[in-house]
Specification:
five-stranded antiparallel beta sheet, three-stranded antiparallel beta sheet, elongated
Length: 254
């Protein structure tokens, strides 16, 4: 296959994978706590595929490849809900939850209570405090969550606060190293858990929205589609040129 066709095909393949990343961002534009992903590209020089220039020397053919993706860990906007069980973290820490038989992490603080009075995520995973799952009594009311994560309630007719636990905020040396598992959950991966999260605080009655810039992602999607179409047209022109050249060579005068 001609080098021009190979170069064009390599670009189309990376554009297709970039479109998958953009589409996933757009699909999660309204997912609480979602962090957008972006594609990384680099030049790939193939030493085996060479072409001759006008003085007869060889030069390596340059392709493009997607090296991977990186995660935008920027904080999303805080949306007030006035629900005392909704929480958002102001900072780079994560809520710790019990899921899949171990400890995982999330930024989605849309919490509720299960049938046994335990604080859970929308998928039913237990929200962990510094001493384990946080459990409320049937007579608890006036739930209050302090910025440091301490959960207090008024129990029955009592006039003094009772402590139900302290929300565990997990902080990491490099949050971009967290492994995305889907369902808004992350595993520690190669990230190192820090001993405290003093730079982060809990905001009760708020949820963190996705940090996806919908307008920017839609614009990027249009750019990718246009680039893909332009390359497809270029490849078609190259194919037509080769076809025309072959037909003329085959048209030998009698």
């Amino acid at each position: 296959m001609q080098n021009a066709l190979l170069i064009g095909l390599s670009r189309q393949m990376t554009l297709e994978r970039q479109m998958d990343v953009i589409a996933n961002n757009v699909a999660n534009a309204n997912t609480n706590g979602f962090k957008a992903d972006h594609s990384l590209f680099e030049e790939y020089l193939n030493s085996n595929a060479r072409e001759d220039n006008f003085i007869g020397a060889d030069r390596r053919v340059s392709y493009v490849q997607d090296r991977g993706t990186y995660r935008d860990i920027g904080q999303g906007p805080m949306e007030p809900t006035n629900n005392p069980l909704d929480m958002a973290i102001d900072g780079n820490a994560y809520f710790a939850v019990q899921a899949n038989g171990g400890e995982l992490f999330t930024r989605d603080g849309k919490f509720s209570l299960n049938s046994t009075g335990q604080l859970v995520t929308p998928d039913g995973n237990l929200v962990l405090g510094t001493g384990g799952p946080i459990t409320f009594q049937p007579t608890d009311h006036d739930i209050n969550v302090a910025p440091d994560g301490t959960v207090t309630v008024l129990e029955g007719t009592a006039k003094t606060d009772s402590i139900r636990g302290k929300i565990r905020m997990a902080s990491f040396d490099d949050p971009t190293k967290l492994t995305k598992l889907g369902a808004n959950l992350y595993a520690a991966g190669s990230a190192t858990l820090q001993p405290d999260a003093k730079s982060s605080s809990v905001r009760q009655g708020y949820v963190e929205k996705s940090n996806v810039n919908s307008v920017g992602e839609m614009t990027r999607m249009v750019e990718v589609m246009r680039s893909y179409t332009a390359i497809a047209n270029l490849l078609q022109q190259q194919s037509d040129l080769h076809k025309s050249a072959i037909e003329k060579l085959a048209d030998v005068p009698a």
